[in-house]
Amino acid sequence: MNFKKTLLGAGLVLMSAASVAATSYKIGTEGGYPPWSMVDAAGTVTGFDADVGAALCAKLNADCQFVVQSFDSLIPSLSANRFDLIISGMSYTPERAKRVNFSTPYAVEDAIFILKADSEIIKADSAEAIFAGVAGKTIGVQGGTTHGAYLAKMAPKVKIKDYETLDQMQIDLDAGRLDGTFADLTSQSRFLKQMNNADFALTDTVIKGSSDPETLGYGIAVGIHKDNAELKQKVDSALCELIKDGTVKSASEKWFDIDIANYDACK
Fold first, then answer.
1. Separation CA 137–CA 157 (nearest Å)
2. pLDDT tens-digit series, residues 83-98
3. CA distance 75 to 37
4. What is the pLDDT of residues 22-37, one digit of tens each?
C-alpha cells in the first residue's frame, strides 16, 4: 500500500480541545494495520493509534494531521523531517532507537501465531515447541515489524515471507498460500474472527512482548526525531497523563476489548 499523501480536511485533521492551537504536528502512520491504524476510501484515519494521537494532540494543545504511508518507510521519513511524530503501533527496540527517539511506551502488546487448526503445535505449551514445529514452514509477517526479526532469531529454520501490509498477509493465509502468520495478538485475534475459515486457529501459547526486548522491544511508543529532545519531553509528559487518567485504557478496550495500557511506564 503506497499512501503518501497528507491527509487533510474535515475528519482527517486531529483537532485539539483548545479553540486556538499553539502549534501543529504531522503524524506518520501506516493506515493498514487494523485495529491499530486504518484508513478508509475517503482518507479518514481511525483505530487505536488514531485515538491516542487525537488525545495526545489535545494534551499538547496542537493541531495534528496524519501522513499515511508504508510502515517500513516511517522511520526514514521521520529522519527526513517529513513529519514530526510516528504513531503506528511501533515497538521501541534497541535497533530502531539508533535512528529515532522513542517516547515512554504507552502500550504493551504480545504476539501469537495463527497455524493450521489440526497442527500438533496449536496446543503446544511453550514457545520453543512452536519454533520446532514450524521449522521448514512458511510463516507470514509484516515487513519492517519486530515479528520478522524475532522469528529470524528464535526460529532460524522458518521460511519467513514479508508483506507490505497485514491485509495482504492475511489474504494469502486465507487462500492457503502460507502455513501460518505471526503478528500482534490483537490483530491476529481480530482477523481470525473475520476469516470464517475453520482450517486455522490461534496457538495456545502467546509470545510475551517482554520475552525478548532485543527484537520485540520495550512496548509501543511514539517515534520522535533524534534532534527534538524538547518534543520528546512534552510527549512523555502528555502520554503519562493519558495513561494515568484512563484515556489509553478506554481506547484500547474500545478497539481490542482488552486493556493494553502500559501502567509501569510512568511510575
1. 8
2. 999 999 999 999 999 9
3. 16
4. 689 999 999 988 889 9
